[in-house]
Amino acid sequence: MKKPNLTLYLVTDDRFFIERDLIPAIEAAIKGGITALQYRFKNKSTRQMYEELLVLRELTRRYKVDLVVNDRVDLALAVEADGVHVGQEDLPPDVVRKLVGDKMYIGYSINSVDKLKEVEHLPIDYIGFGSVYETTTKKNYKLVGIEGLRQAVKLTSKPIVAIGGITHYRVMEVLQAGAKGIAVVSAILGFEDVEKATRSLVEAMKNYYRKIQHEGFVSP
Protein backbone atom coordinates (compact mmCIF):
# COMPACT_ATOMS: atom_id res chain seq x y z
CA MET A 1 0.00 0.00 0.00
CA LYS A 2 1.27 3.44 -0.92
CA LYS A 3 2.05 5.76 1.97
CA PRO A 4 -0.28 8.81 1.84
CA ASN A 5 1.21 12.13 0.80
CA LEU A 6 -1.49 14.53 1.97
CA THR A 7 0.59 17.62 2.70
CA LEU A 8 -1.52 19.78 0.37
CA TYR A 9 -4.72 17.98 -0.45
CA LEU A 10 -7.16 19.40 -3.02
CA VAL A 11 -10.80 18.30 -2.79
CA THR A 12 -13.06 18.87 -5.79
CA ASP A 13 -16.60 20.24 -5.56
CA ASP A 14 -19.39 20.42 -8.14
CA ARG A 15 -19.99 24.15 -7.87
CA PHE A 16 -16.49 25.07 -8.99
CA PHE A 17 -16.84 23.20 -12.29
CA ILE A 18 -20.06 24.63 -13.67
CA GLU A 19 -18.17 26.86 -16.14
CA ARG A 20 -14.69 25.37 -15.84
CA ASP A 21 -13.17 22.26 -17.38
CA LEU A 22 -12.07 19.73 -14.79
CA ILE A 23 -8.86 18.31 -16.24
CA PRO A 24 -7.04 21.59 -17.09
CA ALA A 25 -7.91 23.02 -13.66
CA ILE A 26 -6.59 19.95 -11.85
CA GLU A 27 -3.43 19.92 -13.92
CA ALA A 28 -2.86 23.57 -13.01
CA ALA A 29 -3.25 22.72 -9.32
CA ILE A 30 -0.83 19.83 -9.72
CA LYS A 31 1.71 22.12 -11.38
CA GLY A 32 1.17 24.55 -8.51
CA GLY A 33 2.17 21.95 -5.98
CA ILE A 34 -0.71 19.85 -4.58
CA THR A 35 0.44 16.46 -3.31
CA ALA A 36 -2.97 14.76 -3.40
CA LEU A 37 -6.32 15.08 -5.15
CA GLN A 38 -9.64 13.90 -3.77
CA TYR A 39 -12.25 13.39 -6.47
CA ARG A 40 -15.57 14.35 -4.87
CA PHE A 41 -18.67 14.99 -6.95
CA LYS A 42 -22.33 14.52 -6.06
CA ASN A 43 -24.15 15.42 -9.27
CA LYS A 44 -22.52 13.28 -11.94
CA SER A 45 -23.39 9.87 -13.34
CA THR A 46 -21.26 6.88 -12.42
CA ARG A 47 -20.13 6.55 -16.04
CA GLN A 48 -19.03 10.19 -16.24
CA MET A 49 -17.14 9.93 -12.95
CA TYR A 50 -15.43 6.75 -14.12
CA GLU A 51 -14.32 8.32 -17.39
CA GLU A 52 -13.02 11.45 -15.65
CA LEU A 53 -11.22 9.37 -13.06
CA LEU A 54 -9.45 7.36 -15.78
CA VAL A 55 -7.99 10.61 -17.15
CA LEU A 56 -7.12 11.87 -13.67
CA ARG A 57 -5.47 8.56 -12.80
CA GLU A 58 -3.13 8.91 -15.75
CA LEU A 59 -2.49 12.58 -14.91
CA THR A 60 -1.77 12.00 -11.21
CA ARG A 61 0.52 9.07 -11.96
CA ARG A 62 2.48 11.17 -14.43
CA TYR A 63 3.05 13.88 -11.83
CA LYS A 64 3.37 11.46 -8.85
CA VAL A 65 0.38 12.94 -7.05
CA ASP A 66 -1.98 10.80 -4.94
CA LEU A 67 -5.49 10.15 -6.25
CA VAL A 68 -8.23 9.59 -3.66
CA VAL A 69 -11.89 8.88 -4.44
CA ASN A 70 -14.59 10.16 -2.12
CA ASP A 71 -17.31 7.71 -1.02
CA ARG A 72 -17.23 5.48 -4.09
CA VAL A 73 -15.18 2.41 -3.25
CA ASP A 74 -16.24 0.79 -6.53
CA LEU A 75 -14.81 3.64 -8.59
CA ALA A 76 -11.65 3.77 -6.50
CA LEU A 77 -11.05 0.09 -7.20
CA ALA A 78 -11.98 0.43 -10.88
CA VAL A 79 -9.31 3.07 -11.56
CA GLU A 80 -6.74 1.77 -9.05
CA ALA A 81 -6.76 4.92 -6.94
CA ASP A 82 -4.21 5.39 -4.17
CA GLY A 83 -6.87 5.95 -1.54
CA VAL A 84 -10.57 6.14 -0.74
CA HIS A 85 -12.20 8.60 1.67
CA VAL A 86 -15.43 7.87 3.53
CA GLY A 87 -17.58 9.70 6.05
CA GLN A 88 -19.82 8.66 8.90
CA GLU A 89 -22.79 8.06 6.58
CA ASP A 90 -20.86 5.94 4.07
CA LEU A 91 -19.67 2.34 4.20
CA PRO A 92 -17.97 1.66 7.56
CA PRO A 93 -14.14 1.71 7.36
CA ASP A 94 -13.84 -1.97 8.37
CA VAL A 95 -16.08 -2.94 5.44
CA VAL A 96 -14.08 -0.69 3.11
CA ARG A 97 -10.87 -2.38 4.28
CA LYS A 98 -12.32 -5.80 3.42
CA LEU A 99 -13.10 -4.54 -0.07
CA VAL A 100 -9.82 -2.76 -0.84
CA GLY A 101 -7.43 -4.92 1.20
CA ASP A 102 -3.96 -3.41 1.14
CA LYS A 103 -4.42 -1.90 -2.33
CA MET A 104 -5.16 1.59 -1.02
CA TYR A 105 -5.25 3.72 2.08
CA ILE A 106 -8.45 4.83 3.79
CA GLY A 107 -9.39 8.29 5.06
CA TYR A 108 -12.27 8.98 7.42
CA SER A 109 -14.09 12.26 8.14
CA ILE A 110 -14.62 13.33 11.76
CA ASN A 111 -16.30 16.58 12.84
CA SER A 112 -15.96 16.51 16.63
CA VAL A 113 -13.34 15.76 19.27
CA ASP A 114 -15.74 13.34 20.99
CA LYS A 115 -15.99 11.18 17.87
CA LEU A 116 -12.21 10.68 17.86
CA LYS A 117 -12.47 8.34 20.83
CA GLU A 118 -14.52 5.96 18.71
CA VAL A 119 -12.16 5.69 15.74
CA GLU A 120 -8.75 4.81 17.15
CA HIS A 121 -9.39 1.10 16.54
CA LEU A 122 -10.69 1.54 13.00
CA PRO A 123 -8.58 0.37 10.01
CA ILE A 124 -8.05 3.90 8.71
CA ASP A 125 -4.85 5.61 7.68
CA TYR A 126 -5.72 9.26 8.26
CA ILE A 127 -8.52 11.45 9.64
CA GLY A 128 -10.06 14.40 7.84
CA PHE A 129 -10.95 16.78 10.67
CA GLY A 130 -13.03 19.93 10.45
CA SER A 131 -14.43 22.36 9.78
CA VAL A 132 -11.55 24.24 11.38
CA TYR A 133 -12.90 27.62 10.25
CA GLU A 134 -16.17 28.89 8.84
CA THR A 135 -16.64 27.73 5.27
CA THR A 136 -19.02 28.30 2.37
CA THR A 137 -18.20 25.01 0.66
CA LYS A 138 -20.50 22.89 2.83
CA LYS A 139 -23.93 24.01 4.00
CA ASN A 140 -24.41 21.72 7.00
CA TYR A 141 -21.00 21.69 8.61
CA LYS A 142 -19.87 21.60 12.22
CA LEU A 143 -17.29 24.13 13.34
CA VAL A 144 -14.56 22.51 15.45
CA GLY A 145 -12.26 25.53 15.60
CA ILE A 146 -8.49 25.70 15.86
CA GLU A 147 -8.64 24.68 19.53
CA GLY A 148 -10.62 21.59 18.56
CA LEU A 149 -7.89 20.74 16.07
CA ARG A 150 -5.22 21.07 18.78
CA GLN A 151 -7.18 18.74 21.05
CA ALA A 152 -7.78 16.24 18.24
CA VAL A 153 -4.07 15.95 17.45
CA LYS A 154 -3.38 15.02 21.09
CA LEU A 155 -6.18 12.46 21.25
CA THR A 156 -5.29 10.22 18.32
CA SER A 157 -2.26 8.48 16.90
CA LYS A 158 -3.73 8.77 13.39
CA PRO A 159 -2.43 11.57 11.13
CA ILE A 160 -4.91 14.43 10.95
CA VAL A 161 -5.63 16.38 7.78
CA ALA A 162 -7.34 19.68 8.62
CA ILE A 163 -10.15 20.95 6.41
CA GLY A 164 -12.61 23.82 6.35
CA GLY A 165 -12.02 27.48 5.57
CA ILE A 166 -8.23 27.18 5.38
CA THR A 167 -6.55 29.92 3.36
CA HIS A 168 -2.89 30.75 2.80
CA TYR A 169 -2.83 33.17 5.74
CA ARG A 170 -4.21 30.47 8.09
CA VAL A 171 -1.74 27.78 7.06
CA MET A 172 0.79 28.53 9.79
CA GLU A 173 -1.82 28.40 12.55
CA VAL A 174 -3.16 25.05 11.31
CA LEU A 175 0.29 23.47 11.03
CA GLN A 176 1.28 24.80 14.45
CA ALA A 177 -1.81 23.06 15.83
CA GLY A 178 -0.31 19.76 14.68
CA ALA A 179 -2.10 18.93 11.43
CA LYS A 180 -0.08 16.64 9.16
CA GLY A 181 -1.79 17.93 6.07
CA ILE A 182 -4.13 20.64 4.82
CA ALA A 183 -7.19 19.93 2.68
CA VAL A 184 -8.69 22.79 0.70
CA VAL A 185 -11.42 23.44 -1.84
CA SER A 186 -12.12 27.13 -2.43
CA ALA A 187 -8.61 28.25 -1.41
CA ILE A 188 -7.53 26.83 -4.78
CA LEU A 189 -10.66 26.34 -6.89
CA GLY A 190 -12.19 29.65 -5.83
CA PHE A 191 -9.58 31.51 -7.89
CA GLU A 192 -9.39 31.97 -11.64
CA ASP A 193 -5.64 31.34 -11.58
CA VAL A 194 -5.60 27.92 -9.93
CA GLU A 195 -1.86 27.40 -10.25
CA LYS A 196 -1.06 30.75 -8.63
CA ALA A 197 -3.49 30.08 -5.76
CA THR A 198 -1.87 26.71 -5.18
CA ARG A 199 1.62 28.20 -5.17
CA SER A 200 0.47 30.71 -2.55
CA LEU A 201 -0.49 27.86 -0.22
CA VAL A 202 2.74 25.99 -0.92
CA GLU A 203 4.76 29.10 -0.12
CA ALA A 204 2.86 29.58 3.15
CA MET A 205 3.70 25.99 4.11
CA LYS A 206 7.35 26.49 3.23
CA ASN A 207 7.43 29.64 5.34
CA TYR A 208 6.12 27.68 8.30
CA TYR A 209 8.79 24.98 7.97
CA ARG A 210 11.50 27.61 7.54
CA LYS A 211 10.25 29.27 10.72
CA ILE A 212 10.37 26.12 12.83
CA GLN A 213 13.82 25.22 11.49
CA HIS A 214 15.08 28.70 12.32
CA GLU A 215 13.51 28.85 15.77
CA GLY A 216 13.78 25.19 16.68
CA PHE A 217 10.02 25.23 17.22
CA VAL A 218 8.39 21.85 17.80
CA SER A 219 4.70 21.55 16.98
CA PRO A 220 2.44 20.08 19.70
Describe the structure.
The chain is of the alpha/beta class. It has one domain: Alpha-Beta Barrel (TIM Barrel). 41% of the residues lie in helices and 16% in strands. It has nine helices and eight strands. It has helices at residues 22-32, 46-63, 73-78, 93-100, 113-116, 145-155, 171-176, 186-189, 194-215, and strands at residues 8-11, 36-39, 66-70, 83-86, 105-110, 126-129, 160-163, 181-184. The chain has an eight-stranded parallel barrel, surrounded by four helices. Helix 6 (145-155) links the parallel strand 6 and strand 7. Helix 1 runs parallel beside helix 2 (46-63) and helix 1 (22-32) packs parallel to helix 9. The longest helix has 22 residues, at 194-215. It is globular. The two termini are 28 Å apart.
